[in-house]
């Protein structure tokens, strides 16, 4: 029997339903896999990845009609048609004006799938899409308004191809997608698309998770990153674990409507290091620190919004200015400094300023290793970016060293036979 034999659904005290191990799992062992119930490739990656299987390769063939979807071969094109037909002619008709959000695109696919497929799918062995939590009663007016905008877009762009249920059931479905949808990322954590993985959504959250979810095409794979014993609950992380306890819980409350009670959240063990201040002659005034944290959280939010309309050089300046200001009080290892350093690195990569990206990346990697757990995709992807930058700049010794560090984590998190690992090994030989 398959690896699903080792896990079961159970009622987790205080958490509602959850997943539990029935046997021992060693570090790096696969607990289960879950094919996407449905998924959608992000528009930015069109032409780089197959719209159907998410395979990354050159020379994909275009959909002859819209010329906007790309496939490995005829099988992938045929396989994707039940989903692609929701968009193909609408994209032609609307042209530049076709702009539904990825959530709307994903939800349209769920509706189409529910229409044609009435039985339980292989993605729903432990939890069905119908059973998804919606937290609908907890939504504030702002969230409800966003959902109404999504429903309007769904009607606008998909009405020719979908027959909808009433507004109330659509509201409920969008609320379910908002707290149960996944994003698929590549090995450098670049966004590839959105998907529904019902069985993966069964797992509860912890800031010290014992499993990690990675993707092989459109299949989610769940591996142990800590030893798991029979009877242990299986926990994944829903959020980026870089930030201090208060920030993590704000995020969890805002997106998933709960506060975490994991070991990390009760001991707040790592918070002091995450909020590290500079070594000055006099210890900093606590009020100054609180004010700077407030400023930092504001800047993080402001930058997130500015990404949609500012130019790369304006954004880079925003990073530099905020780091200069925070740097009067915060150490370079402080997570708010790291957040802006990471953003600056991203802009350099986007502008193909490899030296600039490397300069920022070198500042990030050691503090990342301290703040994140040993098998973290954030750490692995940072080693990988650094390794690839070094190799590109012909600093081969440093490159190999960094790629080896990435591989050591990925062999546990992705499994030693993952195609990403073969690709990286090939890069090391060149
Ligand atoms: Zn394909
Ligand atoms: Zn098409
Ligand atoms: Zn926690």
TrEMBL record:
GO cellular component, one term: cytosol
SMART domains: SET (SM00317)
Catalytic activity from the UniProt record: L-lysyl-[protein] + S-adenosyl-L-methionine = N(6)-methyl-L-lysyl-[protein] + S-adenosyl-L-homocysteine + H(+); L-lysyl(4)-[histone H3] + 3 S-adenosyl-L-methionine = N(6),N(6),N(6)-trimethyl-L-lysyl(4)-[histone H3] + 3 S-adenosyl-L-homocysteine + 3 H(+)
UniProt cross-references to PROSITE patterns, sorted A to Z: SET, ZF_MYND_2
CDD domains in alphabetical order: SET_SMYD2 (cd19202)
Span of domain SET: 5-239
EC assignment: 2.1.1.354
Domain of life: Eukaryota
Entry-linked InterPro entries: H3K4_H4K5_MeTrfase, SET_dom, SET_dom_sf, SMYD2_SET, TPR-like_helical_dom_sf, Znf_MYND
Name of the protein in question: [histone H3]-lysine(4) N-trimethyltransferase
Organism: Pyxicephalus adspersus (African bullfrog)
